[in-house]
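Continuing from yesterday's entry. The apo prediction looked reasonable, so today I'm repeating it with 2-acetamido-2-deoxy-beta-D-glucopyranose included to see how the binding region is handled. Same sequence as before; SMILES copied from the compound registry.
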Amino acid sequence: MARGGVTVKKECLVLLLIGLLSTGYAQKHFITVLMENYSPASLQLYFTTFDEAASVIVSVSDPQFNQRVFVERMSTSTLTLDSKYMITGNQLSSKAVIVTSDVDISVFAFNVAANTVDSSPVLSIDELGTEYFVFTASPGPSESQFAVASAVGHTTFVNVSVSGSITYNGKFYTSGDTFSVSLEPQQAIQFQGSSDLTGTRVITSAPVAVFSGHKCFKGPSTTCDILFEQLYPVESWGRTFTVFPLANHTGDIIDIMAAETGTIVKANETEYVLLQGGHVQLTLQKSCVVTASKPVMISYSFQDRQGFYRYDPFLLSVPPNPLRREYYKFVTDAFYQNYIMIVSDASSVSEFYLNHKPLDQYMFTTKEMNGFKGLEVWLGKVGGQHEIYHTYSPFLVYVYGLETDVSYGYSLGQETKYEEEKNSPVLNCFPHGAEFHLPLSLVSEANLNVSDIHLEDPMCKGTLEGKFVVINIPINRCGSYILSEGEKTVYSNTVYGTVAESGVHRIEVPLKCEMAANESLEWSFHPQITDVVSQGHYNVSLKLYKTAAFADPITTFPYEVDLHGWLYVEFEVQADEDESLQILVESCKASSSLQDQEKNYNVIQQG
Ligand SMILES: *[C@@H]1O[C@H](CO)[C@@H](O)[C@H](O)[C@H]1NC(C)=O
Ligand SMILES: *[C@@H]1O[C@H](CO)[C@@H](O)[C@H](O)[C@H]1NC(C)=O
Ligand SMILES: *[C@@H]1O[C@H](CO)[C@@H](O)[C@H](O)[C@H]1NC(C)=O
Ligand SMILES: *[C@@H]1O[C@H](CO)[C@@H](O)[C@H](O)[C@H]1NC(C)=O
Ligand SMILES: *[C@@H]1O[C@H](CO)[C@@H](O)[C@H](O)[C@H]1NC(C)=O
Ligand SMILES: *[C@@H]1O[C@H](CO)[C@@H](O)[C@H](O)[C@H]1NC(C)=O
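Holo prediction written out below.
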């Protein structure tokens, strides 16, 4: 952060040595299970940290398991539970795997057996719900399955409304039947179907984790594979999706499931009307847009392709729009050829950074559909944690690893906890004028175009930047007028959204800014290779150098400096309107996080 102004005081908070802040989706409490695999399987858990080291406790109540794992900051550790913890058949067990961390982490689960594997992100307890619909991948034989795990410290009642057929406790239930079970804390129950269980509805008295898949899925040219994915509750389903085929496949299947009767789904120029728990399956020959009148869940089955490839099938969920996050951490396994598919509506892909390097330093292919890009990036046989971010535009990401006969995949970007924070207008006042950010959603809701947004002077219009209409408000033009002058100058203008050629204002936002001779401004520098921040009428740049000669800029991030070591910082402000601008960097601090104002190091104090 930097503050500055006309004659000027400045304070800057230089951000070093961090990943991009804590993003809200990492959490401390998780629950998962080891579902039945066709041969004895193990559950491989990955714990990924952000800017704090974590102490993680993993426990199962019976058979008892209790282990603590320490994870360094910005790294990943793994822990494996063996097949003793696998739930078999239609079993009520105490095998729920509880993960508790002292700081926010992300958790990934891999179900691994000889010749087959699948993976899923593990949802945090906060993201769980009380209503789910099961998707078990295929009209296959008897090995489709799902599991429900208790997530609270008291008895949870579970009602299962069957689609397909299940034999439980000696009773046979078929489509339309409902039965109830109760789960005590740390218990998990698994159900296997004598037919496809897709469409089965699970309603519970308290939040639960639900996992779904297939014990022995028969792909077009494979014989028996585990499919495993944690399901999202109905409350985090969505209504619009852009689906790109992974790995150039043309025969993968997407399944679209409705939670409410009368849901109208449009896909591939065809309209389907679905009942509650009803679903439609499409072969994903190419990229596809799906829209629905009510929330739906889309599951993606990566199938083997006839021909040269013998990839193992896997299951993942398709996150809906709107895209929410600009930053992800994920893990890969070095055994596989690993890929990610980024789905983004950003105009510029040069603003993506993967493992701190611009995306163009990687091999990737691009598909386009309806203003969205699907970027498939090849990572190669690398394991461990990765991070990807875009400097301003949210996106989602699929992660998958392919090898002959074994493959895994999962997706990220559906977390409900990461709510959109950027939907309110923002006014920034600067010494030379102001800048107003109007969310595009408000413009669309008013049924207006970007070009309909203007100031008192209709010639001063807004421009579209990402999801905002941005309009610059100069102090002495565009209809701005001075309300009072003195120590502080107050000036005013109004932003209008006007129906074209009618003079009718649908949006009217009066704006007022105070301008002081000494103005404080704030800038934040995100730790990355680009180091110029443009704000209003200033460009502020911050460059780091290794030596006092200021000749060898630091170009990689993160860059670590030992305590008492030297770091040379060049701070520059450009402003085009005022030649007399003077800058004083009053204070400058380095901090390990934007949010954490406590732990910072003074670089410059009192000028
Ligand atoms: C389960 O079904 C029973 C019987 O219909 C009902 O009384 C109960 O409220 C249901 N429980 C939940 C969690 O929906
Ligand atoms: C998809 O096709 C492109 C272009 O032919 C190729 O470069 C890429 O490696 C393929 N992706 C996979 C996963 O095989
Ligand atoms: C989409 O429609 C085309 C032409 O009607 C058809 O050939 C293709 O299989 C359909 N794709 C899906 C995903 O259903
Ligand atoms: C936006 O502008 C385009 C082209 O000028 C026009 O066709 C369209 O009707 C406008 N939309 C609205 C909502 O006013
Ligand atoms: C602006 O602040 C500086 C430093 O605090 C001070 O010396 C100067 O007199 C101030 N100028 C005005 C116009 O207030
Ligand atoms: C800031 O940088 C941009 C892009 O390089 C440039 O177009 C703009 O004129 C600069 N603004 C100022 C105030 O120097």
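Comparison notes:
- Confidence is low (pLDDT under 50) at residues 1-25, 417-422.
- The pocket of 2-acetamido-2-deoxy-beta-D-glucopyranose (ligand 6) is lined by residues 534, 537-539, 574-576 (CB under 6 Å).
Will overlay with the apo model tomorrow.
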